[in-house]
Amino acid sequence: MILTWPVVAAVLFGALLHAGWNAMVKSSADKALDTAVIHLMGSLVGIPLLVIVGLPPPSSWPYIAASVVIHIGYYIALTGAYKHGDLGLTYPLMRGTAPLLVALSATLTVGETLSPLSWAGVIGVSCGVLALGLSRHAMDSPRAVGFALTNAVIIAIYTVVDALGARQSGNPLQYVAMLFVLDGWPFAAIVLARRGWATAWPYARQRAPLALVGASASLGSYGIALWAMTRAPVATVAALRETSVLFAALLGTWFLKETFTVRRAVGTAAIVAGVMALRMG
Is there a contact between 25 and 187 (Cβ–Cβ < 8 Å)? Predict the structure, then answer.
């Protein structure tokens, strides 16, 4: 498997979609409820898609079940990170550490070995992503950092699980459709139990149009990533996907009034260099 330019372009587009729905959650008044509404809408969007593409083979169902459980932890850590820290801090920390963890485990879990140049690319992207997020402000937000780093581990776990599941299914679209149909309900039930129907329903109705956009972006982003992982090494796709941090930094600057510093410019350059190394590796 090699990383071709069409795969690179697709994953970069998916990264933009991923940054978009994360910015939507960060900008909301209730992070947990917004995350629940977005992914509940994703479950509803996944139903007609699943009808069209069909069920994945039974051999991939254990991976889907495991991923649904793992994603509950992901959503809890995600909302905790966004509750206690800026998008420009927490998003890079979550996304920058995970590719290194995936790359380190890829030999044992996926049976892939990266070339030295590919390793340089993974490290370059991860260091650039972390440069975008790490600052003195991180020391002032220990809870945000804790949630973000916890989520990095969770992201690495579900990335490997879903890569194996998508390859086992033989059809990434079937796999991601089934995953999304099931994925939104457990966390939504947890949030509903905490917030109560009287609070959750009016908020969900108000946010439904935006949540539909966010759900479609989330499904599209992850579907592209799983498709790419059936055609290129998992670790390189995982690293390339984290270029979403560039888009998140821009969205945070434009819409959330966060500062784009020289340090972030250096991080951006490191990510671009890492992407080129991944392609050439």
Answer: no
- Is residue 131 within 8 Å of 109, Cβ to Cβ? no
Look-up: residue for tokens 């083979």? Answer: 57
Residue listed under structure tokens 């809870």? 143
Question: How many structural domains are present in the chain?
Answer: 1
Q: Per-residue pLDDT tens for 199-254?
A: 999 999 999 999 999 999 999 999 999 999 999 999 899 888 877 777 777 766 77
Q: How far is it, in rounded angstroms, from Cα 137 to Cα 225?
A: 31
Name the token pair of 183: 């994925």
Cα 204 versus chain centre, distance: 22
Which residue shows structure tokens 């329903």? 201
SS3 111: coil
Element (H, E) at 24: helix 5-26
DSSP letter, residue 85 = S
Q: Cα–Cα distance between 111 and 134 in angstroms, integer?
A: 32
For residue 144, give both structure tokens: 């945000």
**Does this model's pTM top 0.90?**
no
Number of helical (H) and strand (E) elements in the chain, helices listed first = 12, 0
Residue 17: give the domain boundaries.
Answer: 5-280
Q: What distance in Å separates the CA atoms of residue 106 and residue 110, rounded to the nearest whole number?
A: 5
pLDDT tens-digit readout, 57-69: 999 999 999 999 9
Q: Give the separation between CA 245 and CA 134, rounded to whole angstroms.
A: 13
Residue 17's φ and ψ, nearest 5 degrees, are: -60, -40
User: Which one-letter amino acid corresponds to residue 272?
Assistant: V
